[in-house]
Amino acid sequence: MLRILLTIVLPLALWVWAFIDCLVTPEEEVRYLPKVIWLIIVLLFPPLGPIAWLVAGRRRGFLRAAAPGGPGQPAADGRPGPGGPRGGRQVAPDDDPEFLASLGKAAPSGDGSRPGGGSLQEDDKDHEAMLRQWEADLRRRAQELRGGDEPEDGRKS
To answer: Taking the complete model, does pTM exceed 0.90, yes or no?
Structure first.
């Protein structure tokens, strides 16, 4: 049983894990060779390929932190890298002040006002007017397709 574990299951698990890790690693974090070459090495040379990938192929830990765009450091485009101001954890869009500011709206105030300045009632009136316009347009199109057989109110005679 131990022989099967050491000769088949463990190398297979290492091979699959290294392949998936290589596949999802961003191109900027791959070291020494292009990502495609690393994928070929991992696929064609088990178990040496996966071990080589884990040892030399990817920036890990403190090496990634020292790279531009690493944790807490801005990337080349000025955005914070992974692990930046929020500590590397994902933030829901409705909890992210930067996202809300980019939409041009503040946090919800609960007073019924909308970010665009209108109230909910005004938005409802606009939507109802738009719906009436669409219905009239659909009636007109249906009448054109039938050759004008139906009366204007949409009922059959």
So the answer is: no
Torsion of CA 23, 28, 30, 35, to 10 degrees: 50
Give the burial string for 32-49 (b: 16+ CB within 10 Å, else e). Answer: eeebeebbebbeeebeeb
Determine the Cα angle at 132 with ends 130 and 137, to 5°: 95
Mean pLDDT, residues 64-91 = 53
The structure tokens listed for 79 are 């955005």
Predicted pLDDT at 101: 82
SS3 154: coil
**Cβ atoms 19, 50 nearer than 8 A:** yes
The answer to whether the CB of 137 falls within 8 A of the CB of 129 is: no
Residue 68 tokens, joined: 């531009």
Task: Report the first-to-last Cα separation within the chain, whole angstroms.
Answer: 83
Q: What is residue 72's predicted lDDT score, i.e. its pLDDT?
A: 47
Q: How far is CA 93 from CA 5, 75, 90, in A?
A: 45, 21, 9
- Closest C-alpha to 80, from 92, 63, 68: 68
